[in-house]
Amino acid sequence: MADIALRGVRKFYGKVQVTHDVSLDFASGSFVVILGPSGCGKSTLLRMVAGLEEISGGEISIDGRVVNDLEPRERGCAMVFQNYALYPHMSVAENIGYALKVAGVAKHERATRIAKVAETLGLAEYLDRKPGQLSGGQRQRVAMGRAMIREPKVFLFDEPLSNLDAKLRVQMRIEIRKLHNRLGATSIFVTHDQVEAMTLADTLVVMNAGHVEQVGTPSDVYRHPASRFVAGFIGSPPMNLIPVRVVSDSEVELGGARLQAGVHGLPVGQKVTLGIRPEDVAIGQGGCAMDVEFVEELGASRLLHGKLGGAEMVVQVGASEMAAPGTLAFDLPPSSLHFFDIDSGKRLGE
Ligand SMILES: Nc1ncnc2c1ncn2[C@@H]1O[C@H](COP(=O)(O)OP(=O)(O)OP(=O)(O)O)[C@@H](O)[C@H]1O
Ligand SMILES: [Mg+2]
Fold first, then answer.
1. Same CATH topology for 4-232 and 237-341?
2. CATH assignment of 237-341, among 3.40.630.30, 2.40.30.20, 2.40.50.140, 3.40.50.880
3. In terms of CATH, what superfamily is 4-232?
């Protein structure tokens, strides 16, 4: 286990800056997920922690020791990549034990440690097979085993599940979390899949274009998104984000129509983005109305798609509500509303 601290970490590729003064603290033994869209700098950040990429500014420390100038192998991190990069000509046992062989560990001890790791990962019966004779999930576990056998203080995962089919992803996600609970090594897991991030993380770091947008527990980030970007990125379907103008303490206007919406003391006349999650809309009352154009059947619930004053809106309702298009009467409960600055996108008020 190890604490990890990033202070003002920057990365330039030539003149292009891909991470902007990232400062983060990862507590020893925690499972941190870095979430963000493609190209936002997640892999770069992880590779800088591992020492595979030089940093252009700032400081990275592991267990209180600045590691900026340390070689990857001196940092005590093991990394699991998206493409597992197993050695195809080696057996599972040889793949798992390779790092120990290179380090000159005696054959007998190697065999004992390989057996232990294989046992933990449910690979004991596949030790003699080649990677080509394994399923995707089994290969993924071999890649994990190869990292685990070094008994690292820190695990770094770069989208390790993205090559797996949907069902296996869910299964492996649970396995990784169980394994973490057992081993307790500090883990940083990079993904662009928000469900994966929500379910795995103790601490969630949301990144956008090289900046950290928000750090918090998954439920914090879900309930109090710090920006319009986070609000729209987390949640499936995502939060409705509607540009409105405040007209009184209890009303907003959009597209010429007035809606009942408690605005938490925002100044009259201010233009803001109003956010409400599809599942938070209260149906059946009638402060607002929407023409439902399309009903998406999900089995356990339904998604009603329509327009509110010209803005796209999705409302999630129970399986017994509204099976066909029509007019939906609803309210926007004040406690479920989010407001964001129209320009900066930052969260407003509480
Ligand atoms: N070696 C490089 N030279 C120049 N630019 C690079 C290099 N590696 C990455 N980049 C750029 O840095 C940015 C961040 O890349 P990075 O791989 O960290 O993104 P990511 O968040 O991991 O994305 P993905 O989810 O697609 O893996 C991207 O715009 C990318 O084009
Ligand atoms: Mg990446």
1. no
2. 2.40.50.140
3. P-loop containing nucleotide triphosphate hydrolases (3.40.50.300)
Nearest ligand to the CA atom of 18: 1
Residue of minimum CA distance from atom 12 in ligand 1: 18
Give domain limits for the chain: 4-232, 237-341
As for ligand 1, residues whose beta carbon falls within 6 Å of it are 13, 18, 36, 38-44, 192
Atom from ligand 1 closest to the CA of residue 13: 4
| 140 vs 217, more confident | 217
What is the distance in A from the centroid of ligand 2 to the CA of 275?
A: 29
The residue contributing the CA closest to ligand 1 atom 26 is: 38
- Which of 22, 40, 159, 213 is the best mutation target for the ligand 1 pocket, counting ligand atoms within 8 Å of the beta carbon and taking the most? 40
Ligand positioned closest to the Cα atom of 81: 2
pLDDT digits (tens, 9 = 90+) for 64-74: 999 999 999 89
Mean pLDDT to the nearest integer, 196-225: 96
Q: What is the per-residue pLDDT across 289-317, written as a single tens digit (0 to 9) for each?
A: 889 999 999 999 999 999 888 889 999 99
pLDDT of the residue at 135: 87
3-state per-residue secondary structure call for the chain: CCCEEEEEEEEEECCEEEEEEEEEEECCCCEEEEECCCCCCHHHHHHHHHCCCCCCEEEEEECCEECCCCCHHHCCEEEECCCCCCCCCCCHHHHHHHHHHHCCCCHHHHHHHHHHHHHHCCCHHHCCCCHHHCCHHHHHHHHHHHHHCCCCCEEEEECCCCCCCHHHHHHHHHHHHHHHHHHCCEEEEEECCHHHHHHHCCEEEEEECCEEEEEECHHHHHHCCCEHHHHHHCCCCCCEEEEEEEEECCEEEECCEEEECCCCCCCCCCEEEEEECHHHCEEEEEEEEEEEEEEEECCCEEEEEEEECCEEEEEEEECCCCCCCEEEEEECCHHHCEEEECCCCEECCC
pLDDT tens digits along 327-345: 899 888 888 999 999 999 9
Amino acid 266: pLDDT: 85
